[in-house]
Design goal:
The chain is elongated. By secondary structure, it is an alpha/beta fold. The chain contains 8 helices and 5 strands, in the order αααβαβαβαβαβα. It folds into 2 domains: 42 residues, Arc Repressor Mutant, subunit A (Orthogonal Bundle), CATH 1.10.10; 126 residues, Response regulator (Rossmann fold). It has a 5-stranded parallel sheet with strand order 2-1-3-4-5, sandwiched between helices.
């Protein structure tokens, strides 16, 4: 059963019987109880998720700026990816609505990760905003040639960052 259909069936059962247990849902739908628990847990946080892949002080500032965001257009859930990671595995496990990607990651060049994401049949649609300490034209051009949807140089203006993030997330909902 596909996730959307499973989610729909779970919600129908919960609406019909608000006190139904996860075990009873699993039994009724013939799926593992652990899967039902995971799907129900995913219902609880409906905020849009932003995955930050990078290192350094700017990442902490970006995380604080976006977590403090309380305007109505975009609510975000920020996850910081650890160093030494497989970018595609992190995207697979986190299922972000937007990836903020530092161009100067320690293990692998950010442009290469962007190319991998955009070449993937599973993740090409996830928008990527590149972050860089360099404001040079060469970096911006390489970011866009890598498939990036936007580019922000650091230090960033918090108002501009929120506006750019909001614009990308609105655009993906259309």
């Amino acid at each position: 059963m596909y996730n959307k259909n499973l989610d729909h069936e779970i919600l129908k059962l919960i609406e019909a019987q608000p006190e139904i247990s996860e075990g009873d849902i699993a039994c009724t739908l013939s799926v593992p109880e652990e899967l039902v628990k995971i799907r129900i847990e995913n219902f609880k946080d409906t905020r849009q998720k932003i995955l930050i892949m990078g290192n350094g002080n700017n990442i902490s500032n970006i995380k604080m700026t976006l977590e403090a965001e309380d305007y109505n257009v975009v609510k975000v859930n920020v996850v910081k990816a650890p160093e030494g990671f497989s970018a595609l595995e992190v995207v697979k496990s986190e299922k972000p609505d937007l990836v903020l990607l530092d161009t100067g990651l320690a293990d692998i060049e950010g442009f290469k990760i962007c190319r991998q994401l955009k070449a993937s049949s599973r993740y090409w649609w996830i928008p990527v905003m590149m972050l860089s300490e360099s404001d040079g034209v060469k970096n911006r051009v390489e970011a866009f040639e890598s498939g990036a949807d936007d580019y922000v140089s650091t230090p960033f203006n918090p108002l501009e960052l929120r506006a750019r993030v909001g614009m990308i997330l609105r655009r993906t909902r259309i």
